[in-house]
């Protein structure tokens, strides 16, 4: 036959034993375009062996899960209080399921109805028997995958592979909730670790980290569910108010994508509110595909020299790999491009790459000097961008790199490796480098981690990194065949992502860190001198950023912070060792003063309100209190107005505070609102006389302006607007 899926297709060879397909070979020779087969230029063989199915076949059990997870399956069934179903029925269901040939558009329930007919029970009875069992099957399968994913350092998050881990976790947690045993998730994952670690010892090594990530993710999900249920109730009520009875698919997707609320929870909560939900069967597949796509990379400014322009030019000799401390060199000009780009036969200038900025410096030739402002690698050729005079082709030049800049970059690049080793020792082996950018004054390292770093953890990372510096560990760099490097060091080499080529450059810092890296580094960690972590940030879910400085560059922020502390100590007239206690005492005194001020303002507002109420004017059932005072503080005006309308709901308070500018506060009591008063209009109209504007709500609005000389006109306008608004009593 022909197999088709994922946009590809080809003839297939299926290995079937007793009705069970245990292997499939697909000879991929077509791509599917608009339902048509288009032949591929490169043909491959997609080999699929169902190893679990071989186990099932060899054991002759009623299901694959009974063969692969016998002990775990029994334990989870026991936790859920489920009895083992009739094995004869299960065997018959398995047999007839393999005989079904349903249309692609058929739903799961339609398939179940067909199976029920064939085994001679009602669809409802079959659903009752199989649904809990299917959940248990899914739980044991998902928890195995989850244990392996987390063991490889995948941190649950909202992007890429982290999203797959989160999706798997939340589906598992939801199924356990339906079985009434969501609290057993860590225990079940631990069972998986114990079961599989005999063949995969790495699972046992990662046990504590795996279980901690599971616990942290469970806490996050419980918070999400609580917030989500309230959100769904609100949406359901809004829909009912609009006479709608179905939550749209876009809303369902938004609830899951932006708020993490599973469709099952939406369906259950909405049903209680009398609103329906239709969940597509492929809902999770569609959502997962969206998140697994790599985030779009920030587009780099296009370099003026393309690969076509350097085609045929010899590969540039990279002197910075032969001696990273070489500062000057002689070279021959191979090619001049675009009038300002130069290709040399060899160079010490490091081209931008791997998060390390390019070297800068200058070229000397014929008594002239040209500044090297950018260096990029185009294919296997290094291109130097010049500012100033340009040497002629085939001439000889002397290159001089900006050593101060390069040496600082070497320190920061080496510091990145040292910090990475420290972070993995403090936080765990799940930590991976997510991104990095080196600078002259400071650099950043983004790492995967499942929660915010604590100050204590940051201090531990910093201390360990500086211990590595004090050991002056040699930094070795060498080119190795990829296979040999992977055999020696594993895939942890690729902290900065996949690196192309048969041979890769491996940078090894003793027993501290080893990575595939093309950057420039120090001879040993002792040259770093010192590393200081300046701050940390949570740049996205599951990713922590460390911003740090190394060497003399690290001294500057420390000195700046010391200056700041000394300035604060001087201002507070306190010695440094007592600064924290002094600041705490002053803050407490300030808070107490604020409370006293609030109490005094309330008393003052009450007294002023009583005085103003004595001058209130009655207008058609509404009392008007209008006054101006030499008081610009809107807070005081609001408190006075609030006292007035709270004690007299039929009153409107219009208060003006005048100083360099004029402020307006308008507040209307409950009964005044019933008579048609709108504070917004009053504030807006009065403020317009002052050259400003106003806004707010019908019961409370504010405004102001700068034309204080127009105060009398603003007061008149406010009163006129109120009189116009008031409804005449019937």
Structure keywords:
single chain, 730 residues, alpha+beta, Elongation Factor Tu (Ef-tu), domain 3, 5 domains, six-stranded antiparallel beta barrel, six-stranded mixed sheet, 24 helices
How would you portray this structure in words?
The chain has 730 residues and is α+β, with helices and mostly antiparallel strands. It folds into 5 domains: 2-49, no CATH class; 58-100 and 107-292, no CATH class; 309-401, Elongation Factor Tu (Ef-tu), domain 3; 407-558, Threonyl-tRNA Synthetase, Chain A, domain 2, CATH 3.30.980; 608-725, Roll (Diaminopimelate Epimerase, Chain A, domain 1), CATH 3.10.310.40. The protein contains 24 helices and 27 strands. It has a 6-stranded antiparallel barrel with strand order 8-9-13-12-11-14. It has a 6-stranded mixed beta sheet with strand order 22-23-24-25-27-26, with helices on both faces. A hairpin with a 2-residue loop joins strand 2 and strand 3 (20-33). The termini are far apart. The model has no long low-confidence stretch (mean pLDDT 88).
Concise synopsis of the structure shown:
With 730 residues, this protein is α+β, with helices and mostly antiparallel strands. The chain is 46% helix and 24% strand.
Please give the structural blueprint.
Layout: E1 2-5, E2 8-17, E3 20-33, E4 36-49, H1 51-59, H2 64-68, H3 70-79, H4 87-97, H5 108-119, H6 123-151, H7 160-179, H8 185-196, H9 201-205, H10 207-241, E5 246-247, H11 249-259, H12 263-272, E6 276-277, H13 283-292, H14 307-310, E7 317-318, H15 319-322, E8 328-337, E9 341-344, E10 346-347, E11 361-365, E12 368-378, E13 381-388, E14 396-401, H16 403-427, E15 433-437, E16 443-448, H17 455-470, E17 475-481, H18 482-489, E18 503-509, E19 513-516, E20 531-540, E21 543-550, H19 555-572, H20 579-613, E22 617-619, E23 622-629, H21 634-647, E24 651-658, E25 662-668, H22 670-674, H23 679-689, E26 693-697, E27 700-705, H24 711-725
Parallel strand pairs: 5-6, 7-10, 23-24
Antiparallel strand pairs: 1-2, 2-3, 3-4, 8-9, 8-14, 9-13, 11-12, 11-14, 12-13, 15-16, 16-21, 17-18, 18-19, 20-21, 22-23, 24-25, 25-27, 26-27
Helix pairs in contact: 3-6, 4-5, 6-7, 6-8, 7-10, 7-13, 8-10, 10-12, 16-17, 20-21, 23-24
């Amino acid at each position: 036959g022909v197999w088709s899926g994922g946009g590809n297709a080809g003839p297939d060879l299926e290995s079937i034993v007793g009705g069970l397909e245990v292997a499939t070979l697909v000879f991929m020779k077509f791509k599917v375009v608009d339902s048509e087969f288009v032949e591929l230029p490169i043909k491959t063989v997609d080999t699929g062996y169902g190893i679990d199915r071989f186990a099932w076949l060899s054991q002759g059990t009623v299901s694959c899960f009974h063969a692969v997870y016998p002990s775990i399956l029994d334990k989870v069934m026991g936790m859920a209080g489920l009895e083992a179903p009739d094995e004869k029925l299960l065997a018959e269901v398995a047999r007839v399921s393999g005989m079904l040939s349903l249309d692609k558009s058929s739903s799961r329930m339609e398939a179940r109805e067909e199976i029920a007919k064939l085994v001679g029970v009602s669809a409802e009875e079959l659903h009752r028997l199989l649904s809990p069992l299917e959940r248990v099957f899914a739980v044991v399968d998902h928890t195995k995958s989850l244990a392996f994913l987390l063991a490889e350092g995948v941190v649950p998050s909202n992007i890429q592979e982290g999203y797959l881990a989160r999706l798997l976790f939340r589906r598992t947690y939801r199924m356990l909730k339906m079985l009434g045993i969501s609290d057993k998730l860590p225990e079940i994952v631990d069972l998986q670790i114990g079961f599989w670690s005999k063949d995969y010892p790495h699972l046992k090594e990662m046990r504590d980290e795996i279980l901690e990530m599971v616990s942290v993710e469970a806490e996050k999900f419980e918070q999400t569910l609580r917030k989500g249920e309230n959100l769904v109730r609100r949406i359901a009520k809004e829909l009912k108010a609009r006479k709608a009875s179905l939550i749209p698919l876009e809303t369902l997707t938004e609830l899951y994508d932006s708020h993490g609320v599973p469709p099952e929870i939406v369906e259950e909560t909405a049903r209680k509110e009398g609103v329906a939900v239709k969940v597509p069967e492929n809902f999770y597949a569609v959502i997962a595909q969206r998140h697994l796509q790599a985030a779009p990379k920030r587009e780099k400014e296009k370099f003026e020299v393309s690969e076509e322009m350097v085609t045929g030019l010899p590969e540039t000799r990279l002197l910075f790999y032969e001696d990273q401390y070489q500062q000057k060199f002689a070279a021959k000009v191979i090619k001049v491009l675009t009038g300002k780009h130069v290709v040399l036969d060899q160079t010490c200038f490091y081209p931008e790459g791997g998060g390390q900025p390019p070297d800068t410096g200058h070229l000397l030739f014929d008594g002239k000097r040209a500044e090297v402002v950018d260096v990029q690698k185009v294919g296997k050729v290094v291109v130097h961008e010049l500012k100033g005079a340009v040497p002629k082709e085939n001439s000889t030049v002397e290159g001089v790199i900006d050593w101060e800049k390069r040496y600082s970059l070497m320190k920061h690049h080496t510091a990145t490796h040292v910090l990475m080793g420290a972070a993995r020792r403090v936080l765990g082996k799940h930590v991976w480098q997510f991104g990095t950018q080196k600078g002259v004054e400071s650099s950043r390292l983004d790492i995967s981690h499942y929660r915010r770093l604590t100050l204590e953890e940051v201090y531990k990372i910093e201390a360990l990194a500086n211990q590595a510096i004090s050991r002056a560990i040699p930094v070795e760099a060498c080119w190795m065949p990829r296979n040999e490097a992977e055999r020696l060091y594993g895939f942890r080499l690729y902290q900065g992502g996949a690196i192309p080529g048969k041979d890769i450059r491996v940078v090894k810092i003793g027993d501290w860190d080893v990575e595939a890296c093309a950057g420039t580094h120090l001879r040993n960690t002792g040259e770093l001198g010192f590393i200081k972590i300046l701050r940390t940030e949570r740049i996205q879910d599951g990713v922590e950023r460390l911003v740090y400085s190394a060497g003399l560059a690290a001294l500057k922020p420390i000195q700046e912070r010391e200056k700041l502390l000394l300035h604060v100590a001087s201002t507070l007239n306190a010695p440094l060792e007592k600064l924290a206690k002094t600041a705490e005492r002053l803050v407490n005194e300030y808070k107490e003063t604020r409370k006293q001020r609030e109490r005094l303002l309330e008393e003052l507002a009450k007294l002023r309100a009583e005085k103003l109420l004595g001058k209130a004017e009655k207008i058609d059932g509404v009392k008007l209190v209008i006054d101006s005072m030499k008081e610009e503080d809107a807070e005081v005006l609001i408190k006075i107005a609030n006292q007035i309308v709270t004690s007299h709901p039929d009153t409107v308070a219009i208060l003006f505070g005048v100083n360099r500018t004029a402020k307006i506060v308008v507040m209307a009591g409950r009964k005044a609102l019933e008579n048609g008063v709108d504070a917004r209009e009053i504030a807006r109209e009065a403020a317009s006389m002052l050259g400003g504007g106003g806004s707010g709500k019908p019961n409370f609005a504010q405004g102001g302006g700068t034309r204080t000389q127009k105060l009398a006109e603003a007061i008149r306008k406010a009163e006129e607007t109120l009189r116009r608004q008031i409804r005449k009593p019937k």
